[in-house]
Design goal:
heterodimer; A: alpha/beta; pyruvate-formate lyase- activating enzyme; Arc Repressor Mutant, subunit A; 3-stranded antiparallel sheet; 22% strand; B: alpha+beta; Rossmann fold; Alpha-Beta Plaits; 6-stranded mixed sheet; 32% strand
Chain lengths: 368, 620
């Protein structure tokens, strides 16, 4: 078995659960942070045999990883295997000069800041704790601590948002000089209180979404960013540094990854599993020396191949088709080519710009 | 099949008085003409009760309506006859279908009678359908016995009704019987009036045998059962018989009459009404209106009036699931056994797949067939917009009849379309609304007459094509439901008709082609493409939708290409969900109908077909 070189660690704690959020989170619970980190480390010990000694990437996601008790966060980071890229997600209001220094000395190389928007009224709609200036301060504190790889998350399609709000957000984000930007449409899940509260306005935003998406791509590529994945942009560094999110790139390239923590997903060879999303059950199991409850999905080679195509077509680099022939519908490929949505050679395929805007539909045409 | 069933011995004994051969002078054959809900079935039930033909205990609600569908719709599709005894006479009640589509069958049923009860609801007055059938009866020389029914209702106006009916018949209002079939009041008077006023049959008992086939039914065990009225001579059981128009030969396996159950006899004589079990396996070999005679001593001339009934309304029937095609074919075969008027042939549509182009007598006939297919055979159907039969002549060619817009030549020298004579009765305040509707529908005014100070009878000539659209719904809605309507086919006339094709991304969609008057082509073409633009989901490229006459585009819309179809977020925890969405999207594509490069959901065709059908575009 090839050792796994990508590790995801889930830190579920948050100060507040935002209305639109559908991640596995736990509000507050400061008294449980220690126990949780203990559990993570036990799970790591159990899974260690599958991991390479030196990892390519580690990603701490949440929740709000930077809401975790600083001492526990530091203990966790110190115990993880070394990696070339270590990313931590951070909410702006949690990034103090002290925290920035803690992350830096813990060998974290990259911070992803959840800015979402710079409009105060839209931040309120999203129920975010931070204000626009918290985002700016956070980026400065990170720079002061020596971080040279900072990413900002933006969200569009927020109830009440206009096209000019979005343009202003993009401008404000670019002004902070980030190395990387992720721009997502707001995905309001049916049945959540958020969807209930904003029904009609969400419908209006859905109609505006295609315009927003085009604005995002036009504005960021115009500012010299590389649109390297459907929702991700990186600065093209003169020194030749590759500023793509290396951990996420591993997902899109179909690599194996191990996920630790409640609700975390792992994919290793023909198995994908998700840990229990319930904090109590997760802690209990590991405290008792058992593996957490897991929902397991078996993936045969054909499924993994189709996933490779599905994920690979999200990238700007051509997808190598060697070994994936069975997962591709040649007629669909020809049709996508005729429509100017994809370009292919004998052994690669890539979507054109227009094809990438229609990525799901084109992928449905190309995947066998 | 409820109409074909055996009778118990006891019942046979009870009716032995009427089973023996009867002197013609003591036979009375009659029908009941009435609008739906005016009480025909109730009156028939009362007559059966009063004559001890069936006891109250045996009484089933609306006994004559045997099919489930008829009961629910309140109409009678197939006629049959019941024999009753009254004061030393043999009375044969011959049931008539109640609807316009079956005018020919009504006329054959009436031809089997010497008289008819004209039953009018005293609370409603005469309706167009009643009028049409009453005229048929008068033209057939029948003695009409007018009856004002439902006099027990508080809102009944028997005096006004009697005057209206007497006016129509040129009769004395005093001779209009006033009854309540519901309570039984006056029903005995009705039977007496039949005996007194309706003439006895006047056939020649010694002549070669002739009988009119006025209806038929199919029984899966006994084959085709013919309902006959013997005119001359007599028929014996096991005798070899022949139909004079179609030349079909068979042995009379059984002769008999209904009273109300099947009662076999050895022979049926002149003037009598009864049934013949033929053993034939297909109703189309024994057509309504044909004349039966004996092979051994055949008649020289058939009875007059036989017509080969031809379907006038056509539509494509397609199974919603293409796998159901064999089931649809079997179901049509079985329906056809019992419905000689139904015709069908296989049709292939690039948009809707494999199905059948079916011909019907009219819209109601179409609805009945469709409902029976869906209800009795559990099929889910797509029905294209109905069209009529066209007579078309291309340059230097002969006339041909076209039943499918997709086969209509794009260049024609001459076209003819069927017309109807429409008869409409409305309260006078709606005359304007009816005239306006008829003008919109290319109608030609014919005649206006006041039936009473309040009610007006209008006649118009209208193209049948204008009626098969949403005419009836429009008439009802513009007259707040007060109008009653009937029509009779009035032959073919030349028309300025064109074929309009609908093209999706330059590909013609056969199922959406239509034949329409040149003046209406632009409006309808525009409506069609607008509707299609709403219904066709945005694709990965612009999709032009056009309506065209020949190569000339008369309307155009564009379904703009989608600009975004991708969900932004996809990380390690999202992959399974994303893959499932992709698989769903992929499966969704497979369910689409492919028109050229365009994927069109079947629902889009349905919605467009429905505007073709106007307001009646409902789906099962």
């Amino acid at each position: 078995m090839t050792p796994v070189r990508h590790l995801y660690v889930h830190l579920p704690f948050c100060a507040h659960r935002c209305g639109y959020c559908d991640f596995v989170t736990a509000v507050g619970r400061r008294d449980q942070h220690r126990a949780y980190v203990d559990a993570l480390l036990r799970e790591l010990e159990r899974e260690r045999p599958v991991l390479a000694d030196e990892l390519e990437t580690v990603f701490l996601g949440g929740g709000t990883p930077t809401y975790t008790e600083p001492a526990e966060l530091e203990r966790l980071l110190a115990s993880l295997p070394p990696a070339v890229e270590v990313t931590v997600e951070a909410n702006p209001e949690t990034v103090t000069p002290g925290l920035a220094r803690l992350l830096r000395r813990s060998r974290v190389t990259r911070i992803s800041v959840g800015a979402q928007t710079f409009r105060p009224e839209l931040l309120r709609v999203l129920e975010r704790v931070a204000g626009p200036d918290d985002v700016r301060r956070a980026v400065h504190h990170l720079r002061d601590a020596g971080f040279d790889n900072v990413s900002l998350d933006l969200v569009y399609g927020i109830p009440g948002q206009s096209a000019s709000d979005l343009e202003a957000d993009l401008g404000d984000a670019l002004a902070l000089g980030p190395e990387h930007l992720s721009c997502y449409e707001l995905e309001a899940k049916p049945g959540t209180r958020f969807t209930h509260a904003w029904g009609a306005e969400l419908t209006r935003q859905t109609d505006a979404m295609e315009d927003y998406f085009e604005r995002v791509v036009t504005r960021l590529t115009g500012a010299g960013f590389r649109w390297y994945e459907t929702a991700n942009f990186c600065r093209v560094d003169r020194s030749g540094r590759d500023l793509r999110a290396r951990h996420n790139l591993a997902y899109w390239l179909g690599r194996d990854y191990l996920g630790l923590g409640m609700g975390a997903v792992s994919t290793i060879e023909n198995r994908r599993w998700r840990n229990t999303p319930r904090l109590g059950r997760y802690l209990e199991a590991l405290a008792a020396g058992r593996a957490p409850e897991r929902e397991v999905e078996t993936l045969d080679a054909a499924v993994r191949s189709r996933e490779r195509v599905m994920l690979g077509l999200r990238l700007d680099e051509p997808l190598a088709l060697a070994g994936l022939e069975a997962a591709v519908d040649p007629d669909g490929l020809v049709r996508a080519g005729e429509l100017g949505l994809a370009t292919s050679t004998d052994n690669t395929v890539a979507l054109t710009a227009r094809g990438r805007f229609l990525g799901d539909a084109v992928t449905a045409a190309i995947v066998a | 099949m409820g109409s074909v069933c055996g009778g118990g011995e006891e019942e046979a004994r009870k009716r032995s008085t009427i089973a023996r051969g009867m002197d013609q002078s003591r036979i009375r054959n009659f029908s009941i003409i009435a609008h739906i809900d005016h009480g025909k079935s109730t009156l028939a039930d009362r007559i059966l009760e009063l004559t001890d033909t069936v006891s109250a205990r045996e009484m089933r609600e609306q006994l004559l309506d045997s099919m489930e569908l008829e009961r629910e719709r309140g109409i009678t599709i197939k006629a049959q006859a019941v024999r009753v005894a009254w004061k030393g006479h043999e009375l044969n009640l011959i049931d008539t279908p109640g609807h316009v589509d079956f005018t020919y069958e009504v006329s054959r049923s009436l031809q089997a009678c010497e008289g008819a009860l004209l039953v009018v609801d005293a609370a409603q007055g005469i309706e167009a359908q009643t009028l049409a059938n009453a005229y048929l009866a008068i033209e057939g020389g029948l003695e009409i016995v007018p009856v004002a029914n439902k006099i027990d209702l508080p809102q009944a106006d028997p005096v006004a009704t009697a005057i209206e009916v007497a006016d129509l018949l040129g009769d004395d209002p005093a001779r209009v019987l006033r009854i309540s079939a519901k309570t039984g009041a006056g029903v005995a008077d009705v039977l007496d009036a039949i005996v007194e006023r309706v003439p006895a049959p006047a056939g020649d008992a010694g002549a070669p045998a002739r009988a009119l086939v006025f209806d038929s039914a199919y029984d899966q065990y006994r084959g085709v059962v013919a309902f006959v009225r013997v005119v001359d001579g007599s028929f014996s059981v096991r005798e070899e018989l022949r139909t004079m128009a179609t030349g079909t030969r068979f042995d009379a396996e059984e002769l008999g009459f209904f009273s109300p159950t099947m009662t076999p006899v050895d022979s049926l004589g002149a003037g009598e009404v009864g049934y013949v079990v033929t053993g034939l396996k297909d109703v189309s070999r024994l057509r309504v209106g044909d004349t039966l005679t004996a092979v051994k001593r055949p008649a020289a001339q058939p009875l007059p009036g036989y017509k080969d009934v031809k379907p006038m309304v056509f539509a494509g029937l397609f199974p919603t699931e293409s796998d159901d095609y064999p089931e649809l074919r079997d179901a049509l075969e079985r329906l056809k056994l019992n419905d000689a008027a139904l015709v069908y042939e296989p049709e292939t549509s690039q948009a809707l797949g494999f199905g059948f182009r079916c011909g019907f007598l009219g819209l109601l006939h179409m609805e009945i067939v469709r409902e029976r297919l869906e209800r009795e055979f559990d099929l889910d159907l797509l029905v294209t917009a109905p069209n009529v039969a066209y007579r078309v002549r291309e340059k230097n060619a002969d006339w041909v009849e076209v039943h499918n817009p997709a086969e209509f030549p794009r260049e024609v020298e001459e076209v003819e379309e069927p017309y109807v004579k429409a008869s409409i009765i409305v309260p006078k305040e709606y005359v304007g609304a009816v005239m306006e509707l008829n003008n919109e529908r290319r109608g030609t005014f014919d005649h206006l007459e006041y039936l009473s100070p309040e009610r007006v009878h209008l006649t118009y000539e209208l193209p049948l094509a204008e009626i098969v659209l949403d005419y009836y719904d429009q008439l009802k809605s513009r007259t707040r439901g007060y109008a009653s309507f009937d029509y009779d086919l009035a032959g073919f006339k030349a028309g300025e008709l064109v074929r309009v094709d609908v093209l999706v991304a330059q590909e013609p969609v056969d199922a959406l082609s239509l034949i329409i008057h040149r003046d209406l082509a632009y409006d309808r073409g525009r409506l069609l493409v607008e509707k299609l633009r709403e219904e066709i989901p945005r694709q990965m490229f612009d999709v032009p939708i056009q309506a065209a006459i020949g190569s000339r585009v008369i309307a155009r819309e564009t379904v703009k290409a989608k600009r975004k179809d991708v969900l932004a977020k996809c990380y390690g925890g999202d992959i399974t969900r994303k893959r499932k969405l992709l698989e769903k999207q992929k499966a969704g594509k497979r369910r689409m109908k492919q028109v050229g490069a365009v994927e069109v959901p079947q629902e889009a065709f349905l919605a467009v077909l429905n505007i073709g059908q106007g307001g009646d575009g409902r789906r099962s």
